[in-house]
């Protein structure tokens, strides 16, 4: 093995294949009527596929440099703020409700990830939260929390 990325990719390859293999015990079903093991099966295949990509990417010098650059040049404060916002979104989901909670999360992400004007930020957050509400609440009839304001 050339480096730790190859070793860890072999671990994730084995983990992904194990997930895909054992999810078959729950029944995969079909595309039109998926069983309880269908999503874990696809997730296991995705993990295994990504692990293979990393494994073979490490054979080229260019591939190793890409992975190193990702970790060295990453904007860690921004990444940590985004992770914190996602955790906060999860904790406030029932209290604020889907619409308000999704609005502030999208507004925060638009402002932090690529700073844009407040006008565009709020317009994008309203469109995204409203669109998600229409898809999940109106079209799919999912039960979403209304929050303390009742909407």
Please provide a brief summary of the model.
The protein contains six helices and no strands. The protein is an all-alpha fold and 151 residues long.
Number of domains: 2
- Oligomeric composition of the shown chains: single chain
Please give the largest β-sheet: none
What spatial form do the alpha-carbon principal axes imply? flat
Q: For the record, give the distance between the C-alpha atoms at the N and C termini, rounded to a whole number.
A: 56 Å
Q: Provide the low-confidence segments as ranges.
A: none
Rg, alpha carbons: 20 Å
Based on DSSP secondary structure assignment, what is the total number of beta strands? 0
The secondary structure category is mainly alpha
**Tally of DSSP helical segments:** 6
